[in-house]
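Both lines are retained for reference:
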Amino acid sequence: MVHIRGKYYEESDGYMDAFQALNMFHHRQIVINYYKNDELVDRNGMTFDTISIKRNELKLIKDDMPVFSIPIEDDTQFAPSGRIKNHYYLHTGDLANRTELYFP
């Protein structure tokens, strides 16, 4: 079960529809920022062709091969940041400890 935008989804419910915003990004760049206690602790940037979302994992695909993956925990929440266009949060209820996805 995944908690996204205030709703719980089972895989059979089509919870991936909650990630519909990510489906518009193809052949793009992404910047992934990891925060712990509101402090940036890691950053990755890369190009990708498509995004694949499976039960517990978001994968970036390039040339038909996964190039990077982000684990999705059962209580993961996904939402746009509301501050910057094409900027999203993945977190488990605590925004001080989050993963940010930015598509420049």
Notes: The longest strand covers residues 39-48.
